[in-house]
Amino acid sequence: MLSEGNEEYRLLKVTCCDRKCQAVLSVSSFETIVECHQCGQKHEKSTLQDVQVVSEQEMPWALETFVQRMLRADPLPKRGPEMVKVLGLSNYYCKLLSPLLTRYGMDKVTGRAKLLKDMNQSEIFDCSLFGDRAFLIEPQHISIPGFGRDITGSVNYLSETLNLITIANGGEERLIPIHADGDGHCLVHAVSRALVGRELFWHPLRCCLKRHFQNNLDKYKA
Asked: Which of 73, 144, 185, 197 could tie 135 with a disulfide, CB 3.0–4.6 Å?
């Protein structure tokens, strides 16, 4: 162990907070923010689980993983918010999967993908099945960029409305604007997140919205 001032420098073994990740990390006792090399989330060290001082037997592993993490930290491009995994999924993966979920489901017998129409369902996923759902974000995920609280300006222009909602709930923050990708499909991205917390269903929602407009074109023309 090395000393710096009145503190001793130690290598610690910690576990990532994300339930689906649970990567074991080697971190310095002086670090305050730790980025998980596996899921990409950043955690305050005080929130990390199973914190242990590295033993002599574990020191070779700890030094190797710590040095590798430090070497990755600066020279390489930072992982963007769209690639950060929360409970095993990133925005990027969700957006890629979404078009498949428009027409495919999982066969309960085989566990394999199968066209919805071959399972006696509509050709396109019926998004009205989510009509009674609403997403409740976990407190530890609110600060995750690209998943939690939106930082693009919505907090400012919705400030009066959000303040009234907070006052109506006895000063508790019950409603926050969360991130939705603004790539031209922001409406369906936002609706998907509001329903299930992910952008997994942006494409089925877009197809359903298109079909709705086509079926009700005369009403909208009137």
From this structure: 197
Q: Round to whole Å and give the CA distance between 143 and 151.
A: 10
How far is Cα 29 from Cα 178, in angstroms, rounded to an integer? 33
SS3 of the chain: helix, strand, coil, percent, to 5? 40, 15, 45
Residues 123 and 105: their CA atoms lie apart, in Å, by 11
Residue 55, H or E segment: none
What is the pLDDT at residue 1? 41
Any idea how long the chain is?
222
pLDDT confidence of 70, banded at 50, 70, 90? low
- Report the candidate in 172, 206, 24, 212 with the shortest Cα–Cα distance to residue 103: 206
- For 119, the 3-state DSSP assignment is helix
DSSP 78: P
Say how far apart CA 153 and CA 11 lie, in whole Å. Answer: 39
Those residues whose C-beta lies under 8 Å from the C-beta of residue 46, and which sit 6 or more positions away, are none
Give how far Cα 97 sits from Cα of 25, 89, 111, 182, 215, Å.
30, 11, 17, 18, 27
Q: How many CB atoms lie within 10 A of CB 47?
A: 10
Residues 6+ apart with CB under 8 A from 36: 16, 18, 21, 23, 25, 42, 43
Residue pair 149/142 in contact by the 8 Å Cβ criterion: yes
Cα Dmax for the chain: 78
> Hey, is 218 helix, strand or coil?
helix
